[in-house]
Amino acid sequence: MDRKNIVCEVCSLESAEKVSESFRASYDQIPVVLPSVEMYSCSQCGEKFFTPEQAKHVAKAVRVVVRQQLGLLPPERIIEIRRARGLSQERLEALLGLGSKVVTRWETGRVLQTKQADDLLRLIEKVPVVIDVLREIREESGRSRASNRSAVV
Is the pTM higher than 0.70? Predict the structure, then answer.
């Protein structure tokens, strides 16, 4: 353990030292227990806190555990599936009816895909013709919206 003390975020004394402890968190109301997390603990006031870098590490670890608990594809597999089917991130977003940069967030692990999106990704991987069906659905949906707008005018 690092014995170098840093300034406590609460009492402002140079009395916080690095510790490693179990940590409870949640992601989208899913409880997670990380067995060993690095943080700082103040010997004066008892406050425990993370540096920004530690907080990023913990957030990533929580997402990894939740992804495993839910049985979701990891970011690397999402990238593999998309590339194997010759799709850009933007094209996959359009096919699935997603907003901008959603696939980027999945692929970097910053956001977990829904179970429904995960199932669609698995379908795209196992049954490539699904891509053509999704394209047809999007085209039909686009034509339907266009005709509805012209009927209103």
Answer: yes
Helix (H, G, I), strand (E, B) or coil at 103: helix
What are the extents of the domains in the chain? 16-70, 75-152
Backbone angles phi, psi at 121, to 5 degrees: -60, -40
Please compute the mean of the pLDDT values over residues 117-123 and round it to a whole number: 97
**CA dist., res. 11 & res. 134, Å (int):** 57
Q: What residues pair up with 34 in beta bridges, in sequence order?
A: 23
Residue 20: its pLDDT value, please?
96
Q: Which fold has domain 75-152?
A: 434 Repressor (Amino-terminal Domain) (1.10.260)
> Is the four-CA dihedral 24, 25, 31, 32 of positive or negative sign?
negative
Confidence of residue 1 (pLDDT cuts 50, 70, 90): very low
